[in-house]
Structures are given as structure tokens and as C-alpha cells.
Amino acid sequence: FLDARGPRPEEKSKHHTAYRQPPPPPPISEGSKYRARPTKVPERSEAHKEIVQQPDEGGCLHGSPQMGVLCPTGCELRTSLLKQERSNKATIDDLERNVRTLRDSSMNMYDLAMYLDDRRRERQRYSDENTNIVTEYTTELEERHAFLKNNIDANIPSTLRVLRGVLENLRSKILKLQTAISTQQTYCHSECSVSCNIPVVSGKECEDIYRRGGTTSEMYLIQPDVFFKPYKVYCDMTTRNGGWTLIQNRQDGSVNFGRKWNNYVRGFGNIAFDVGKGFCETPGEYWLGNDRISLLTKQGPTELLFEMEDWNENKVSALYKLFTMQNEATNYRLAVSNYEGNSGNALMEGASQLLGENRTMTIHNGMMFSTYDRDNDGWFPGDPMKQCSKEDGGGWWYNRCHAANPNGRYYWGGAYTWHMTNHGTDDGIVWMNWKGSWYSMKRMSMKIRPSFQP
């Protein structure tokens, strides 16, 4: 067996001629289309490698030499891109700055949006709370409105009916009062004349009549001075052993005491009237007259008694052991002394509720008599805007202005208020030391008699 890879052995024969192999044809040596390869630069170590600058045009190498040569079109594209990069870099930087600015603005807008959202949620919470409160109060208001409406619907008609009844009743009473007033005005067009029988006994004053045997309290005729005509008075023959001449009396408001000077000088009112016993045993409301009172006190030492009663029938009194009223030349100046009683010494000490100068201005002792047309008080005399008599309702020995006001306006029921008055002042029948300024007495009287010798 032969080795397939070995040469065949040469056969030797005597008749065989040895074969000669012809020479081979020459190789093709012309017409090559390839140029010679460039000489390969021997590789250097990494430390000795040089950076090859790639040409801009005419054929440029790839970034990796092993990748071959780039086509010219790729190089031109690279060049164009590099030029565009240089021309657009500033624009890109501006865009980058604008992006950063926009980013910052967006963050601010985001923060603002988050803040506004928080505020919105907070306001929504407040709104919800307010809505709840409004709903609560609305419900309460509706309940109250319903309650009031029910009360009005249920009670007002009946209340109106009651008030209408009261109004009609008042109208009826007013008509009766107007009729009575009209009758009284017709009846009292002139001074009332007393038609009672006059007792036979008479005297200089009531004490003199008492000593002459006239011991019944009624109207008498007295004549203190023979040069003057006698006149009628009411004599109280029972109080404190009798003998009292009644010079002033208030009991029902039937007589107006807000009068002029001449009326107080002459006197006014109703001395007494008959209630069915056949004689004038009941005193009326009157002021005896300044001239008559002055003349009575000139007869000798005289004492003055105030008696007063409130609307609960409580009674007090004030006695002045000495009392003098001077004549018209002195404007009927007042002089009193030696107080006794339980009402308070209003004439000599003034209003006990006041202190210092305020209290002094209410002392009546030593003052002249004043009326609204004759200003003699201690409150800027002669000033028409400052007149005690005009403000306090009557004639009296006003200072600036009073602690006692027996001739003031008559108020039913006792207590009264400033808006019920004509001038906003305490113009009632007042004795401040007992009931204060805003309580008007039901009854008050002034009585005089000669002082007894001890």
C-alpha cells in the first residue's frame, strides 16, 4: 500500500524512455489594476504613538485606522457638521440658559401654584366652616322667627284687643274729664264764692277764735287789723290743741299754683266747702295771700307748722317755733328758726342729700318770695333763662333752687320722672329731706298760730 501523500515510485523498464516535463509558461506581469500598498509603518508602543491629524478633505481616515478610509462624502458631512456646530453653539448656549431660566421659573410657578393651592384649601376650609356657622345661625334665626311669628300670631291680636279696650276706656275717661273741666271753667270763670254759713264767733285769727269758744274745725271770718276788711280762713281746731290758721293747703291738685305775683299777693283758691253737714268743715286748696300772711305774722311771735302725707298714708311734720314773713317792700322775705319735727329741716339746713355749696344753695331761710313773673331767687336774679319759679311750678322762697317746694305741680301717685315735667326739673310738691326730689306729696299744708309764752 502506498502512502497517498507520498510520491509514486518510478517504474524501471528496459524498453521505457524517460519523460521530460515541459517548462512552465511565464506568469502574467502586465495590466495590474492595483497600485502598490503603502509601506506599513511599524507599530510603536503606546508611549511613542503619535496623534495623526486627519485632513479636512481629499480623503480622511476613520477614527480607527483599521476601519479604512472614509469616503469623501462622509468627510464633507463631518466638515459641515463641525461648521454648524461652531455656528449653533452660541444659540445652543442661549437655549441652555433659557432652559435653565425656564426651569427656575417653572419651579417658582410650581411653588406659587402649591402655595395658592394651600391657600385655596385653607379658604375652602374657612368657607366650609363659615357655611356651617351661617347654616347654624340661619337655623337658629328661623327658629326664633317662627317662635316670634307664632307668638305674634297668637298673642298680638288678643293684646291689641285688650289695648283697644284700655284705649276706649281712657277715651271715655278723658271725655268725662274734659266735660268736668269745661263745667269747672264755666263755674269758676270768676272767683268762687263760698255759700256756707259763717259761724257767729270771730276774732283776730284762729287762736283768738279758739279762745272765744270756736272749737270746731271749719271756715271762719277773721280780722287781724281793724283798718283792713275781715276775710275768710279755715281754722284747724284739733291738731296740736288747735288754733291754727291754714295759710296753704294741697290735697287733690284742683287748684293751679303756677300763678303770677299779684295772685300770690292777694291769695287764690277755695277756702272750704260743705260736704253735706250744713257748714264748710272741709278745707279746699288755696294760698291765703302774702299780704294777709305778712300781717298775721306782724301781730307777734308766730309759729309755722308743715304737715305732709305721702301716697301710702305716712305722715310727718316740721314745726318752726318762730316764723315771720316781711311785707312787699322786702319782697316778703322769709325768717324761720327753732325747728322741731321728723321731716327734716329743709328751710334752714337745705337738702340733706347734698353737701357743701350745693346744699347751701337749697336753704330757704332769708330768701325773698319769687314767682315766674317776679324773679327774686338766688339763681342770677333777673335772668329770664334762670328762674326757679318758672322751672319749679309755683311761687316760693326759692334760693337756687329748693329743698322744699310745697307750691309745686301736683303729681298723682307720688313718684314722677324728669320727662313728665315741663322743664326737666323736680317741680313736684317736694320735701327733699323726707322723700327726695322725685316724689310729690299727696297732701301738704302750712298752718300758723301765735307762739305761746312759756
From TrEMBL:
One of its GO terms (molecular function) is extracellular matrix structural constituent. Residues 1-48 are annotated as: Disordered. InterPro entries: FIB_ANG-like, Fibrinogen-like_C, Fibrinogen_a/b/g_C_1, Fibrinogen_a/b/g_C_dom, Fibrinogen_a/b/g_coil_dom, Fibrinogen_CS. Pfam families: Fib_alpha (PF08702), Fibrinogen_C (PF00147). PROSITE patterns: FIBRINOGEN_C_1, FIBRINOGEN_C_2. Signal peptide: none annotated. The keyword Coiled coil applies. Its main location: secreted. It comes from the Eukaryota. GO terms for biological process: blood coagulation, common pathway; fibrinolysis; platelet aggregation; positive regulation of heterotypic cell-cell adhesion; protein polymerization. Gene3D superfamilies: 1.20.5.50, Gamma Fibrinogen, chain A, domain 1. Residues 197-452 form the Fibrinogen C-terminal domain. It is found in: Secreted. Keywords: Blood coagulation, Coiled coil, Disulfide bond, Glycoprotein, Hemostasis, Secreted. One of its GO terms (cellular component) is fibrinogen complex. Residues 1-13 have a biased composition (Basic and acidic residues). Heterohexamer; disulfide linked. Contains 2 sets of 3 non-identical chains (alpha, beta and gamma). The 2 heterotrimers are in head to head conformation with the N-termini in a small central domain. This is Fibrinogen beta chain. It comes from Latimeria chalumnae (Coelacanth).
